[in-house]
Protein: PilZ domain-containing protein
Organism: Janthinobacterium fluminis
Amino acid sequence: MTGSPTDVTAVPIARPTVLSLAIKEKAALYAAYMPFIKHGGMFVPTQKPYKIGDEIYLILALMDDPNKYPIAGKVAWITPAGANNNKAQGIGVQFPDDESGQRARLRIEEILGAALRSSRATHTL
C-alpha cells in the first residue's frame, strides 16, 4: 500500500528525553542543585544539544536514598561546551510544580541543610 493518495504518514510524537543522574556525595549534590530556579532544579552534565523549554524526564538517585526521584521537568539552563571558568557542559532541569518536583526539592534541601547558604561555586553560578 504505497503511493496511493490515501496513505497516512505517521508523525512521531516528540517524547521527552530520559536522563538519569546519580549523585554519590553531598558536595556533588551541592554543585548540581539549582535553588535559584523556581521550584528548584538540577544540573545534568550532558553533551547532547538541548533548547530552553525542552521537556526532560529525569530519574534522580540521591546518595544512600533507596528511592529514585522521577521528575518530568523542562530545560531552564544551558551551559555550552567551552563555557567560561571551565564549567561542565550540560543543562539545568527545572522541577515541575507538582508532587514529584516538591518531593525531590524537599529531599535535596533536607540533605544539604545549612550548606544551601554556602557561597561555594556550583556547576552553574
